[in-house]
Amino acid sequence: MQKGINNLIEKFGASDLVERRSGLSFITVDQTKAVAAITHLKDIDGYTVLSFITAADWIEDGKMQLTYMLNNPAEVAEIAIRVMLERKKEAGESMETIHHLWPNAKKWQQELKEMYGVDFPTSPGVNDSFILEGWDDMPPNRRDFDTKQYAEDTFFPRGGRVTHDPATYMREQLDPKDPQYYTKKKKKDINS
User: Fold this and answer.
1) pLDDT the model gives residue 170
2) Phi, psi at residue 114, to the nearest 5°?
C-alpha cells in the first residue's frame, strides 16, 4: 500500500494523506491528474477493484468532492482518491470519466450526475434517467436544494395528520385514564 501512496505523491502531486486505519488511506489528487493517478493505481499498483464513487457537497468552501474507493485484493488494502471540483451555483461541475477502466463506473457516474449535478461528458448514458425519472429541478443531493420548499410546491397538503410528542403519546397509550401515572410513579420510586 505504501508503494501506491508514494507513487501518488511523487508522480501525481497527491496531498492531504489521511490513514484511517491499517489498510485504508484517503489522499487528494488534483482534478487534472485524477484519472491518470487512478489508472496507475489499477494497472501498476494492483488496485483492480472499484468499490464505489461518491460525492460530498462542501458548499461553504465552494467545492464538490468526488471520492473513488479503490481496492487491492492481493494486499487487502483500500485507497480513497479524493478529487475537489470547483462548485458551481446551478450545478454543472464536470469530471473526466473512468468507465474505460471499470464499466460499472458508468452507473455511479450516472447517479452522481442526477443527484449532485456532476457531469461526466464522455460517459455512456450519463444523461439517461437513473432514479429520478422526469426530474426537472436542481439535483436533490446538493446542499442548497430546499427539500421542504420542493415538497410544499409539488405536493398538496393532506389534512388529518397530527404530530405527537413521543413521550407524551406513549404515556397516554399506556394509561389513558391518568397519563401522568407512570411519570409520577417513577419520581416517587426515585425519592423513596
Assistant:
1) 79
2) -70, -40
- Please, are residues 96 and 122 in contact by the beta-carbon 8 Å criterion? yes
Tell me if the domain spanning 2-158 has CATH number 3.30.460.80.
yes
> What is the model's pLDDT at position 101?
97
Helix boundaries (H) for the chain: 2-12, 34-43, 105-116, 147-154, 166-174, 181-191
**DSSP, res 163:** -
In the chain, what are the domain boundaries? 2-158, 162-192
Instruction: Of 35, 36, 45, give the one whose Cα is nearest residue 5.
Output: 45
Task: State the residue for C-alpha cell 497527491.
Answer: 14
- pTM reported for the whole predicted model: 0.79
Phi, psi of 102 (to 5 degrees): -135, 115
Per DSSP, the three-state class of 32 is helix
Cβ distance 87 to 64 under 8 Å?
yes
